[in-house]
Prior knowledge:
With 337 residues, the chain is α/β, with parallel strands linked by helices. The protein has a single domain, classed as Luciferase-like domain (TIM Barrel), CATH 3.20.20. 37% of the residues lie in helices and 16% in strands. It has ten helices and 16 strands. It has helices spanning 24-41, 60-68, 88-102, 118-125, 138-148, 187-195, 214-228, 248-261, 284-292, 313-330; strands at residues 10-15, 45-48, 75-78, 81-82, 106-107, 109-111, 157-159, 163-165, 181-183, 199-202, 205-207, 234-236, 240-242, 274-276, 280-282, 302-306. The protein has a five-stranded parallel β-sheet. A five-stranded parallel β-sheet has the order 4-6-9-10-12, with helices on one face. A two-stranded antiparallel ribbon has the order 7-8. Strand 7 and strand 8 form a beta hairpin. The longest helix is centred in the N-terminal third of the chain and has 18 residues, at 24-41.
Amino acid sequence: MPAPGTPLDQLGFLTIGTFDPADPGPGHEATLAMVELGERLGFDSAWLRHRHLQHGISSPVAVLAAATQRTHRISLGTAVTPLAWENPLRLAEDLATVDVLSGGRLHPGISVGPPMHWDDVKAALYPDTADREDFGYGRVERLLRFLRGERASTFAGREGVVEEWSDRVQPHSPGLAGRTWYGGGSLRSAQWAGEHGLQFLTSSVVKAEESEDFAEVQASHVQAFRAANPTGRVSQGLVVIPTDSATPDQRRRYAAYVAARTPRTTSPQGPARMLFARDLLGDSSAIAEQLYAHAGFREVSEVVFALPFDFAPEDYEQILTDIATRLGPALGWAPTT
């Protein structure tokens, strides 16, 4: 998107799906209601984060299965599922099942690398094989083979009177592998995703490699992906909080939230030198102006805006409504009805 006037093709949103651990039902229900609202507002896609051992959705694939029965048009995605926690064959079965239920609307987003707090969880996650597990790109390749319908077993045929066995994952959902995205924050991951035919998700966290300017780094990742896969899709993700219809109390709370998160955006964080993008807060015209000045945004025609953590349902309704009715149109996007 080189300049204002070039329309934004796809607009989606991403949520963590927080809940009260003492009563998790209402939080999960609120997330499903949010996806339904997104469809009514004309969003192209709704994405769920994957949060293990936190008070956010730990099983977005299961929640999206429910969402398939409450929506009809909107694309549904995970952003992202860390494959270190998954068995690729079993995950392929779950993803294919949800894709069939959705009528081909699922967009799995995945990533690799050791689980967060690996030393704390490895005894529970892989009690016998923790030292031998491979958390590299090979795990993605296994998943893609199963999604494409390649052999998962050496046996196929009838056993006994009624049991029919397949040598590939069932159900098989043609096209699902082509709708799989890789969530990457480094130059290497962007190149690898492009070389292996995946779509590419770039978010509000990148690795400070060739620069300490977030927008420059993000733009370089998109360019590296496109050099490897010129026809692949790329989606940018930043946290945006439009305040067009916000109440004074909401504006105050939103400003406090952004102020608390801003210090981490001023320099690379930790040994991995991770860069965090600034949250964009303000009326839609101001946010649109900031986006058009953002080198990463200027490289894409699709976005998945991330919703803030720990806001109330009425806050998310206001933010989503302003994105769909104010910010999206300011970026040249038109809702799907």
